Amino acid sequence: MNIFTAVRHSNDPAYYYGGLWSGNFYPALRELGHQIVESQVDLLPTTRFMHIKGDFTPQELDVRAQTTEKIVAEVARAHKRKPVDVFLSYFYNAHFDPSGFDELRRLGVPSINFYCNSIYQFDYVAAIAAKADFSWHAEKNARQLYLDVKAKPVWVQMAADPKVYRPVKDVPRSAACCFVGQRYADRDRWMAALLKADLPLAIYGPGWGAAGEAVRDGKNGHAEPTEYLGRQTPPPASLRSYMNLVADSIRDMGLAGGISRSLRQFRYRQESRRLAPLFVSFAKGPIPFQRIFEVFSSYEVILNFSNVWGDGRPGVKLIPHVRLRDFEAPMCRSCYLTGYTDEIAEFYQPEREIITYGSEPELVDKTKYYLSHPSQAEQIREAGYQRAIRDHTWVHRFTKLFSAVGLYS
Predict the structure, then answer these.
(1) Distance CA 83, CA 103 (A)
(2) What is the extent of the structural domain holding 15?
(3) pTM of the model
(4) Number of structural domains, the chain?
(5) Closest by alpha carbon to 113, among 70, 78, 81, 71?
(6) Between 100-107 and 58-81, two packed helices, what is the crossing angle to 10 degrees?
(7) What distance separates the 2 farthest-apart alpha carbons in the chain?
(8) How far is Cα 87 from Cα 325, in angstroms, rounded to an integer?
(9) For residues 207 and 179, is the Cβ–Cβ distance under 8 A?
């Protein structure tokens, strides 16, 4: 097939992980024999406000309209040269005017929009989902959210590329557990439980207080403007930013509910500050994704913490979420220990191919056990690796996706 793609949120990989999804998708698509025509329109101007659900400023709407017009024109030119079989995008509401999908349909080009934060950030893509021909979502339980906006959801989980995430042979494994990822949600609470149990630990990723680690804003370390396209954004951690959060909570939940949530957020941040010094001596700082496979091959046990906030911000229910890591780590032949969910059990046999936990005591006990029983850890490692390379590659996922939307007979 001839596939037109618009999946990079920035043409510069240094911003918004601009090469993350193209790096995941393209090798598999090419391995399946498809041709890729990549959009050359830089989504960065719209990506800078993709955290806005709607109610865009006139300037934001103008930039989105220009971006949409350019992309539709690109597709039309490519379609004239050689028929485009499908348009594959990763758009938030901010990136693309939903009416642009009508233009694609008039060209005779079906569309699939991918989104991987549907459980806790669906509002950021709801308008897009309602207009795309198909909405590819990674979380099984997100289906009803899409149906409620009259979208056509297709559930296909994420995966990993075995050429990128692979075992490293003849590397001695440190008798320690390791976590790779930023400090977020309740991850530091789980980590604190391991440290209190005196378990050997290594932490890679931003936000854990590694020596020389720069303060980050969550967008690959690049500072964002405080005024952009008619919208004022207060600096992170400023008094005004906190007041805006309180105002948003009151608007969404009413006076009593908003104040109650704000108090929970305050207590959460106080506890986070109290725990912060625990991690400094164990934190090794961020690493490029190209080196993650080396780290996964260097430790006896690889940890994962799957919870996300119900709406992306502290103060509400935590929701477990299957992630890329659930496929990347086993594919590197790691002894993988993650939180139990019914969904993860659809992809692995718990306690045979991966290990799971449901409480802090269980996390501590299982970590201790597999660190002290390397032969059992090796059995998990091999079984998980074989399952991952057999069933959880992007080649398998795209075969399933294209079959589900009728592009494969």
Answers:
(1) 15
(2) 2-159+394-404
(3) 0.91
(4) 3
(5) 71
(6) 10
(7) 64
(8) 27
(9) no
